[in-house]
UniProtKB/TrEMBL annotation:
Molecular function terms, GO-annotated: carbohydrate binding
Alphabetical list of InterPro entries matching this protein: ConA-like_dom_sf (IPR013320)
Protein name as catalogued: Concanavalin A-like lectin/glucanase superfamily protein
Pfam families: Laminin_G_3
Keywords noted in UniProt: Lectin
Native organism taxonomy: Bacteria, Bacillati, Actinomycetota, Actinomycetes, Micromonosporales
Naturally occurring in which organism (per UniProt): Micromonospora pisi
């Protein structure tokens, strides 16, 4: 009995490969071959798809509890102020200095993902962060970010590339914003339950293996701050299908 163990390297391409084994003796030889699949293992842990990665409902105080099982509590940088607005009637005022930040955490490997927020944007003319889990200047190979261009187009940087979507977000009113990334890299942007634009990144998934702060409304250096108002926020380790975009809040908060 002969046993062979074959494992892919990090450089291996996924798919089928032909393997051949040969046994040779002075008097005989035997050859056998088989086609086997060599899947590439994920670079770090894959989150449980049954739970959100994070779920925040800022309504009072400087500390925002994470309603997911992951304990990613957020702190309001520079102190919180709330307004009677938004779908829940209480929203965090983003005055250009405030933003949400966690202690250093890791998101894991995300082959698919959904980013959702009830948000009001009140300015244009500069780049402004929404979700941020990426060092400044990274091309999308380490973490992920979602921001707005000066003309309010939604931009996605992650899964190995940065792309500007065809979606332009409205200003000066609350919107129900949902951004999904499918396993083929297709980005779909929904505003108030309707498709507002699309984009495409490679299909390698988001490498969220590093440990850093997860932020909303500012980058990792505290810049590119968003001005407006924020109600509920969540990230899911799955791409919500179109018929589950409306009502993501129930999935996140129960």
């Amino acid at each position: 009995m002969y046993a062979f163990t074959v494992a892919p390297t990090r450089e291996a391409e996924p798919g089928a490969s032909r393997l051949e084994a040969r046994l040779i003796n002075d008097a005989w030889r035997a050859t056998a071959s088989a086609t086997v699949a060599l899947p590439i293992p994920p670079p770090c842990d894959v989150p449980n798809p049954a739970h959100p990665l994070v779920a925040w409902d800022p309504s009072s105080g400087n500390t925002i509890a994470d309603r997911s099982p992951n304990g990613r509590t957020a702190t309001v940088q520079t102190g919180a102020e709330y307004v009677n607005a938004g779908p829940t009637g209480s929203a965090l005022a983003l005055n250009g200095t405030r933003y949400l930040r966690t202690t250093p955490t890791t998101l894991g490997y995300l082959n698919t993902a959904t980013f959702a927020a009830e948000v009001k944007v009140t300015t244009t003319g500069s780049y402004r962060r929404l979700f941020d889990f990426q060092p400044g200047g990274n091309p999308g190979t380490d973490g992920v970010l979602i921001d707005l261009t000066p003309s309010n187009q939604l931009r996605f940087i992650g899964a190995g590339n940065g792309v500007t979507s065809t979606a332009t977000l409205p200003t000066n009113r609350f919107i129900d914003l949902v951004v999904t990334m499918a396993d083929d890299g297709a980005i779909t942007v929904y505003v108030d339950g309707q498709v507002a634009g699309t984009a495409k990144v490679p299909d390698g998934g988001i490498i969220g293996c590093a440990t850093r702060e997860l932020r909303f409304a500012a980058d990792q250096d505290g810049g590119q701050r968003l001005t407006g108002e924020l109600d509920r926020v969540a990230i899911f380790p799955t791409a919500l299908p179109a018929d589950q975009i409306v009502g993501w809040q129930t999935r996140a908060f129960g």
